[in-house]
């Protein structure tokens, strides 16, 4: 199937939310896609709709991204098919709201595994290929919560802080090899994440909620421009500015109230 752009884009967590929107926006630009997630039925439905709408090549890969060994197998399969991933959208992630000591240990460790270990493995494997070709772009999807710890979302915020700081460091490390690394830090967004994370939607969060389209558009633009990171939306930018402008005890209290009501 012909495409107007031969740069393959791999999107993890592509079966919904930001991942699905990244797939739509890159397909509209004519890129061939590798869609990766656990939910095969949703991937296949999305792939078929993108092929019909945009005439792009779409490869579906059902992978449990919490399994680092499975990520290695995915990488090998794509290399065997001579698919060179030029753009990696490291989007897969998991969140859970609630008191740290009330959540099962398995739930916390699953979050660390997917949000930290698996993202690191994806970045390492596909980043190495990009360095050898001396071209490529990697977008790490972090979160606004990467900028501060929030009561009842301790592990998720800490995991996303890792993602952001990893992106900061790799932006400089990879730049000399012709590879761009950009971190995207979205705030509250209408993606279904909050429901899956059992997150309380306070009145303030409803007012701040963004649609996925402008968030993804901001991420793609920042990646294309070679920026180190981006926070979409003026309200979210203001929240980050407040972190740097106020004492920790103050903004921690404010954001705890905002997130938990």
Automatic annotation (TrEMBL):
Keywords: Oxidoreductase
Pfam families given in the database record: adh_short (PF00106)
GO-annotated cellular components: membrane
Gene3D superfamilies per UniProt: NAD(P)-binding Rossmann-like Domain (3.40.50.720)
Keyword DNA damage: no
GO function terms (MF aspect): oxidoreductase activity
Family as reported in the entry's similarity comment: Belongs to the short-chain dehydrogenases/reductases (SDR) family.
Protein name: Short-chain dehydrogenase/reductase SDR
Taxonomic source organism: Caballeronia sordidicola (Burkholderia sordidicola)
